Amino acid sequence: MNRELVKEIILSLVIVLSQLLIFNHINLFGTVDTFIYVSLFILYKTTYDKTYLILFGFLVGLIIDLSLQTYGAHTLASITVCYLKERIEKYSFGVNSTLPLAMIRGTQLTNRVTYFFLIIFLHSLIYFSLIFFKFEFTLTIFLYTLINSIINFIIVWIISKLIFNK
Amino acid sequence: MQSIINSIVKNRNLIIYLLLTFISFNYLYNNSSIHYSGVGKIGTFISGSTSNFYSKINSYFNLKEENRKLIEENLELKKIESQFIRISDKSIISESNIDKTLNAKVILNSINKSKNIIVINKGGLNGITNEMGVISSKGVVGIIKNITDNYSSIVSLLNTDLKINAILKNSSTIGSISWNGLDPRIVQLNDIPLSSSIKVGDTIVTGGMSFYFPKGIPIGRIEDYNNTSLEGYYSIDVSIFSDFSSLSNLYILQRTDNDEIKSLLNE
Fold it and tell me: Which stretches of chain B are assigned E, i.e. beta strand?
């Protein structure tokens, strides 16, 4: 158990560091920012305490904010996603959401896609709403959210496959 | 106490989430000018709306007080207005032999009879004598007829017995104003020969050829006229400037030379 925890901490550190060192500097087509750190919240095990997840989200979001000078936008998006994760799980997986090992493996593809996409979409929506923060930009916010969600979904999906196929 | 702790423990995720949201927002608000001004605008909107709501409620409960203040203010303005009118009236009549004007309030008034009388709250003790001219801020009203110590009655312009010397302001053609007893807004201008040129809207003022009024006090303007009379005079309807249905403040003109002129006539 402890070994697994250490492994997960190292994995988290790798993801955060790669976000800081590599993905923070990638900007596709001038509109897409890659936020692979969201995969940490997606892959956070259901058996772990939700309170730690919120605190973990806050910590990760704050680190990203400090590195990108976004002043709390990532933090707010992260803690909201972490807080609502349980509900999104229930919505996506239905009764299976309470099973400890039900996440990723052994579930329907559509359930997984819904789960991944909902978390990424919600994160992007909060993030871009806070970045633009004006009613005039409502359409822009939705456009950015949609494009970013799709690209980030693909990236996070690939990462999750890499981690769990090991 | 136990239930409170239980409730906190039960909702700890929500509490922590709200706390962290607050911290994040604070961080955002304090460091980003866009968010600072955006949140500032929301704050202004909320405080403005609530203040407006409160002020509406407050003003409703303060209506009585506001009303009292308005009445007081109105009275002050009326005082100033009446002083101004007195000054302007005096300037109109300054070249005439008007000694002074007295201010009086109407206490009784009628417009629906053929011989209308107005009663005012000033009388002999205030220096009012017979046959003084009476005007309002808009124009001629009538002539003092009877006096007691404290009250006087005025023969209104709306009295079929009264005739007042009048002229057309533009051409100085002399005529006389009287009332036919029908419409309280319209009096008749008589004795204007058909040879004079008149038009609707011409102003009629007092002619000054009487003991009552100096020259140039407004009476009314021509509303309509008829030149088909066989007697060689126009039949002219004049709408009067003074609203007789709402008279309140009147000014009584005291001429200095009346006695002198009368004594001349008596000789």
Answer: 98-108, 115-120, 133-135, 140-147, 152-159, 164-168, 174-178, 186-190, 203-206, 218-226, 235-240, 249-255
